[in-house]
TrEMBL record:
ATP binds at residues 33-35, 39-45, 228, 257-258, 265-267. It comes from Sphingobacterium olei. This is Glutamine--tRNA ligase. The lineage of its organism: Bacteria, Pseudomonadati, Bacteroidota, Sphingobacteriia, Sphingobacteriales. GO terms for cellular component: cytosol. Pfam families: tRNA-synt_1c, tRNA-synt_1c_C, tRNA-synt_1c_C2. L-glutamine binds at residues 65, 209. PANTHER family: GLUTAMATE--TRNA LIGASE (PTHR43097:SF5), GLUTAMINE-TRNA LIGASE (PTHR43097).
Amino acid sequence: EEEKSLNFIEEIIEEDLRKGTHDGRVLTRFPPEPNGYLHIGHAKSICLNFGLGQKYNGLTNLRFDDTNPVTEDAEYVESIKRDIQWLGFQWAQELYTSDYFDTLYQYAVDLIKKGLAYVDDSTAEEIAASKGTPTEPGMPTPYRSRSVEDNLRLFQQMREGKYKDGEKVLRAKIDLANPNMHLRDPLLYRIRHVYHHRTGDKWCIYPMYDFAHGQSDSIEKITHSICTLEFIPHRPLYDWCIEKLEIFPSKQYEFARLNMTYTVMSKRKLLQLVNEKFVESWDDPRMPTISGLRRRGYTAASIRNFCDKIGVQKRENMIDVSLLEFCIREDLNKTAWRRMAVLDPIKLVITNYPEGQVEELTGENNPEAEGGEGSRRIPFTNQLWIERDDFMEEPPKKFFRLGVGLSVRLKHAYIVECHDFVKDADGKVIEVHCNYIPTSKSGEDTSGLKVKGTIHWISAPHAKEAEVRLYDRLFHDENPAAADDFKSSINPDSLQIINKAYIEPDLARAQAGKGYQFIRLGYFTLDTKSSPDHLVFNRTVTLKDSWAK
Ligand code: ATP
Ligand code: MG
Ligand code: MG
């Protein structure tokens, strides 16, 4: 194992451990809002938070940040749990910010009693105006000077449902001239008469992110609360609340979110792709979601490895999606079983091989693994399917495949030499005729012949059929989110469906979740919608980086 240098968060933690902060305890949390499926960006946060928990003998909580009942749903909760576990992590406790609503309410009452929060009847516009601008200080609204008694009564009435949405808010009383806009009397609570997927109709006031997040960290005694860079300006408010409430001093640290080329990474945008049917679902194999990547054939190990390679930075950057593809190729090259499939078939007839004879050849499952992980039987006959583009009527120089007078090796079988072909009435080639060399059988070749090309094939009478789905990038733009309309660069050809491909018979027993290398074509896996009567394979990734730069 190569020695890896510490990232800046590990340095902070190791310093805390040296100083004995929190008695050497490390407790992190992963705090998704259940308003969408997790994406590869979340994987970075998961690997970081759970990874730190593991590395420092600590723990990691899963906390659903469910303070916005309008957009949240139990379906998302379930998908998030499934994805984290699939990635290989287990939380110490499953928690919900909504479980802290009573405590958070008490905290708000505490602030009011300390003269540090007030009920404001202003409209949203008036409140925005009261905050001033980055260059101009704000001005108090008439409600800022309300008495503690009035504030306590009004806040309680807000809770009791006496007011309509937007009629009143609770604001912190901090500093309307603070250079940090987040400290200019930020909103702590708002009225929302909506049903919550966990608390039902118990509440009609809901805490704002800034009043819920840090306090939830503190309630759980989180030691290192790690979030993305855009929360840097929120940190003074995070610290202010904890200090004024005199509660456990969790600390917030910020790292750069993952941005990746040729995709979008915000749940809001991903939801639009689903709702507007640009993709089939959240787990469409073109989506950058964990569930989409899984369905596409990505392994958890490849995603963890990717997160490890990109590291943890303090500055925003853009990661090339080809790094993710590199990671899955590296993994599947070691683990995928080799098989043959023909996507665009043309018939090859071996004219000197006895009609009706079947020979059982063998092919190793995995030449990269010690012992090859066993082998499978491959039937061979004089009627084969090969790829249409492995034959050319007028082959150019250096075409090391088939054309009249050219020879190739059929993988795991014999060398064949093409001597003829047949066209249909439209002039389309429908058959390629070859002679095989009986002494050239793979593994026992005494022919002394050398050929440059090896092609894949399937015995036609034994071939099984499958639907095969090939994917391209979902967007043409390297950074679709930078455009006015991110949907303007959607690639209309991101999915190519091959309704009838031929696969070798053993693939009818393909296992869900396992990777297969279709020789020369890429890595494939069974789709979740595949059934024994209708096999469907997804191409995870091509064998080589074929993306033109
Ligand atoms: P989105 O913008 O996609 O809705 P979010 O930050 O609102 O993302 P949350 O559910 O709140 O989504 O995220 C849970 C955790 O995952 C947060 O701690 C957040 O910082 C982290 N996270 C979200 N997106 C990324 C990303 N692209 N890279 C790294 N971490 C991320
Ligand atoms: Mg969030
Ligand atoms: Mg969000």
